[in-house]
C-alpha cells in the first residue's frame, strides 16, 4: 500500500467529520462577529492593495505574497469572513491530509492521525501567536508529501497536484522553503529526472515573489544576532527545550504556549508518542515504496535539527554569525517554525504504531484502545479548545479607524504611527497583544516600529527609514522634520508620546482611540523611479507564480478526477 492510495469512500466521511469537529471545537469563539486580533494575526475589513504590502521597500518580505493575496481577496470578501475561512480551512485540511497520508489498514487509524495532526502543540502555538500563513503551510504539508510520493512513482496527474498542493504553502517564505525542501527530497529519482526537474522548478517559481522582494528591499539581508537567543526554542516544563521540540512544541513565546504544556507529565506523554512513533516507522517503511520512508525520516530529522539550532551550543554560535553575514539567514532564527515535517511524520508513525500494537496484543479491544489514543492529544492539551481557552475572541474596530482611513485616502502620503511600537495592547482588544493593524487598515503607506521586545531583549528591526525616524526623535527633534505627511497617535496602546514630537503639526481628528495630525511641511516629491521599477519585478514574479498554478490547475482538470 502506498501513501498516494486514497482511503475507501466509506472511510472519507468519518475523516471529514472528525476534522470538522476539531475545527469547530478549536475555533468556537469565532462564531460571533468581529475580528480575532492576536499577535501576528491581523485582519481588517478591506485590506488595501498597496506597494508597501505587495513589495515592501524598506522591510523584509515576511508576508510576501500573503498580504497581496489577502488584499486581492478582501476586495470581494470581507476580512472577517476571510479569517474564518482560512483558519477553519487550515485545521480541516491539516486533519484530512494527515488522515489520507497514513497507509493504514484500519479506518480508526486514519482518524487517529487526523486528530493528532490537528491537535499538536505546533498548531496550537502558531495559532496563538497568530501566524495563520504558517498554519496554511502546515495544512498543505501532508498533501505535498502525498503528491510528491505519487510523482516519484510516476503516477498520472501527480505533478499538477503537487504544484497545487505546494502553492498555499508558498504564501510565506517559511512555508515556501518547507514545500521546496519536501519536493527536492521526496520527488527525485533516476528513473524520472525530467519530472524531478519540473517539480523542483515549479516550486522554485512559487517561491519567486518573496525571493525577488528580498532582493530589491532596502532593508538588506542581515538581522540582529540578539534574535537568535530571543527566538530560540524554549523549554515548556522541567524537561527543557529539546523535549519540548520532541513533542512538537517549544515556541519562543511563553504567551503563545498553552498553559497545559507546563504540566509535569507532558514529557511522559511525549515519551509515549515517541515510542509509538518508533514502532510505527517500521510499519511505514514496509507499506511505502522502497526508500520513501527513509526520505521522510530525513525530512523530519532535518526539520528538527533546524528547530534546535538556537539551543545547541555550537550551532547557536554559528547561527549568530550567519544572521549577520549570510543574507536571509534570519529566517532560521525562529527555527521552531521548521518543525512541521517532524510533526507530520511523528503523528503518522504514532498512529501506525498504535495500530500495530493493537493488532498484536489487544486485537479484541482494538476500537477502545485506538479511541483512547485518539483522545490522548486532547487530554494532554485541553486548552487548545475554544480558541485556546478564550484567547481568540473577536472584537470590532472603533469608528475612529474608519474615519482616519477615509481622511488619509483623500490626501495620500506617508503615515507615522506613534507611540513607536511594533505590537500594541488596545483597550478595545482587552487582554491581547497584536501587531499594529494600521499598515493593513489604512490605504496609504504606514511607518511602524519594527523593533521587537522579547522579555528584556530588544531585537532590532531592519527598516532603515524607521531607524532614521527613531534617531531624529531621540535627538529631540519634532516629527515634522521626518517628512511624513500624517501622524497617527494611538491612545493607550504602548508607550508615551512626547509633546515636543508633535510640534508644528496640525490636528485633524481627535477621537477616543486615535488622533490624526497633518504635517504642513511634508514633502510631496514622488518616489524615485528606480524603486518603482524594482517593485514591478515582484509583480512579474507574482504573475509567473500564478501562471504556474493556472497551468497546473488546467492540467489537473484535463485528467480524470482523482479523489483527494
TrEMBL record:
Keywords: Membrane, Transmembrane, Transmembrane helix
Transmembrane regions listed in the UniProt entry: 15-38, 81-102, 123-145, 165-187, 199-219, 265-284, 296-319, 339-358, 365-386, 536-557
Name of the protein described by the UniProt record: Uncharacterized protein
Domain of life of the organism encoding this protein: Bacteria
